[in-house]
DNA sequence: CTGAAAGCGCTAACAC
DNA sequence: GTGTTAGCGCTTTCAG
């Protein structure tokens, strides 16, 4: 029946007083460190109980220099990729006794730089960053200099000697392209939201190190091996930013030499592309074949079921967190670069080119 | 070209020394409070720059008692509902200068209690909680007692005098049920993951205050008004926990008097239900009509497009954060209970009952 | 084992 | 305006 009024937490001092011991002893009993007699410990714990004592983690962190908190910086938490990876990070961190501070950058570099600084200032014990594409690494150097571990998610920064966890993309993309080629598709469109500042794609354009670069490399190899020229005119970057996905799709399926297959670089793009195709009355796979990166529950339920490249997203989160925790624990070994296996799931959205006629006559 | 070695951050003391001023003056200049001459300020700022000074937010928080951080407790960040709401919370908090600590409870009460305590111990300035269904409010009382504001998301706790933000569900559910009834459906199945401990649903079962209760209330009213008995045997709770969604769906569409329409209480359930229906060869809407709560990009792209109840998820997040920030700012007015409008989006997954025959003969 | 006292890095009185 | 002196709540020497 205390009066309501807020403020003033009970501190170790309060507990110590009630338990009739020194502040230091109370703190030891409460914090579970140092030497304390059973007698004292129980008295202190009892006092803490009646006083409803809860430690001030801020004060504790200040002394120990460790906050039992990790920071996570992602581009867009609403994107299923990140929310699932986040779940993996979360589960693993929690199991290790760490809390998670989440920062969303909206895929903006300035925000990312800010985010990293904020986390550092809050003294997180380490962080996981999914860097915006084409960012440099200067802001992450500050983290490295601070001595706190970082692990990169979904991206590798060659200039930065830190751990990274990505999904294997080159090989699986090669397979995907082979599949398309096998079905007779040589006019394959590729839509990505990778921001390259609005320039057109060319073979010698440096996209930096990121999943898109890997995918394109795999696809290119398949085309090269097949002796087919990669249709660079159908590779469209900057989707959603410089250009609307709808317009991009529209452009791919019309024109004199249209794409016979479309590859969506992620599920968000796929959804918009699918909507546009439906709006335009373009049928899958009769008029155009469709393949997307990322497996989601709805992909197999569409009509037709969508062929996808599935990457182990949750596991990427788990792996990133596991490595980070190991580093926080003191592991000073060489940076590790994990590439988790992805796989192609063939469903029915990819069909032989020209099957529109077949379909119509069937 | 400093040597690598970690540790030891530069502090105000370091900056003060270099700038040849007192620690207090340096702190004032750095923190942007109190009175400082331009002369001193620039000297301090310059020193801070060369020393790469970054404030220790922990220390700052300890003195001010404010951490500029809010905590968010959700059931499952992987669920699109939460990740989108989180985005709303995030955007709003950030605009107000607050960071966000995310805690995921996995819809587990013990974890939720823990989460709330952790946040309190970390001295967050306030928190947003989407309480697990059917939880009591004792753990949240501690927050209220601490004097820090909480706002409830997607759930209202009558016993707790705090703000809440939910989506209006009773009216829109009434409309949805009306729609179903108008199409001739009286055998309407309802699948929810609401955990009621495995008991069967009956009309007098107390489900507590939560969206499901509201939905059922709205549906019931529509049935009552139409003079049709609510098919309580087709209302299945505990989906995903006590029973697999697939089994539940299977049970609804088979048996002597099967459901002619199925309502999925959220998108996760809908996806599993849809998969099961497809597996079982049950066609929508020919064999069974389908309606789901929550609008997602893929819903309209399915074949047929799914009729949904859309709730303003992002806006709920925004509203919750806005109220919280106002409270943190000192607003002591009466608790506010916001119910944002939802709406029924009619597409093609709901058709007149018995349209299977019509469809077959067409 | 226990207690007194000295900080962690910062802000907040309080004097000058 | 500026500097000095206390703390915030906890951990950590350092003596006993």
Automatic annotation (TrEMBL), chains A, B:
InterPro entries: HTH_LacI, Lambda_DNA-bd_dom_sf, Peripla_BP/Lac1_sug-bd_dom, Peripla_BP_I. GO terms for molecular function: DNA binding. Gene3D superfamilies: 3.40.50.2300, lambda repressor-like DNA-binding domains (1.10.260.40). Transmembrane segments: none annotated. The keyword Cell division does not apply. Keywords: DNA-binding, Repressor, Transcription, Transcription regulation. Residues 10-64 form the HTH lacI-type domain. This is LacI family DNA-binding transcriptional regulator. It comes from Arthrobacter burdickii.
